Amino acid sequence: FNQAAKFKYMFGGKAETPVVIRAMVGAGFRAAAQHSQMLTPLFVHIPGLKVVCPSNAYDAKGLLIQSIRDNDPVIFCEHKNLYGLETDVPEDSYAIPFGEANVVREGKDCTIVTYGMMVHRAMDAAAALAKNGTECEVIDLRTLSPIDMDTVIDSVENTGRLVCVDEANPRCSIAGDVSSVVAQECFKKLKGPIQMVTAPHTPVPFSPVLEDLYIPSADAIAAAVKKTMSN
């Protein structure tokens, strides 16, 4: 996929590589270190490669159809723990454009940005926080390259706070990338420090107990929201 992403540029725009690579990602499946890593940041780092990571079956169908129609190479990341999630999916064909995030929950107090399985953890955290009067806006990025920073920036300008959630390791992560852009574009609008909730910078443990602690939890997300709200 690294070479495929370069062809258009190496041959003056005359070569196309319409290929879709489906890749299983993510921890929580008791598959140990080599089969549980969240490799999305590695893929995003390659110019010319489009990276998709849906959070549900409806988006997966629409984004997969869009991927097949696209003339560029696409890495289609599928979180293993989402395969059993039931979602209403129409039988008709439909495509979801790349680079369009989805605001899955509206709120005025804090913006939570994430993707993949972490969308569900973020929604659980937002529901728990709402019981105490904190309304979080949850944004599902859906595609990571291209990425919809406009939706993120618009939300942060309204809430003044940002929590980035990423199952990947913290170094050079999607969470770190989004945080840096928001810090540059929305600095004067921020009411509290940006928070990142990620996996630790270690391999995924094989021990079920340690693996559960490794994956960012709804409680950790809620704690990050409370931390930025307290400033």
Kindly describe this structure.
It is built from eight helices and nine strands. With 231 residues, it is an alpha/beta fold. The chain has two domains: 4-82, 3-Layer(aba) Sandwich (Rossmann fold); 102-229, Rossmann fold (3-Layer(aba) Sandwich), CATH 3.40.50.920. The model has no long low-confidence stretch (mean pLDDT 96).
Protein traits:
231 residues; alpha/beta; Rossmann fold; 2 domains; five-stranded mixed β-sheet; four-stranded mixed β-sheet; 8 helices; 18% strand; globular
**What structural class should be given to the helix and strand makeup?**
alpha/beta
**Biggest sheet overview:** 5 strands, mixed
Uncertain stretches:
none
Can you identify the CATH class of the largest domain?
Answer: Alpha Beta
Helix fraction by DSSP (H/I, runs of at least 4): 25-40%
Rg from C-alpha positions?
18 Å
Count the DSSP helices.
8
Roughly what fraction of the amino acids lie in strands?
A: 15-25%
Any idea what the CATH architecture of the largest domain is?
3-Layer(aba) Sandwich
Strand order of the largest sheet: 4-6-5-8-9
Tally of discrete structural domains: 2
Mean pLDDT: 96
Cα(first) to Cα(last) distance is 44 Å
The third-level CATH topology of the largest domain is Rossmann fold
Total number of β-strand segments? 9
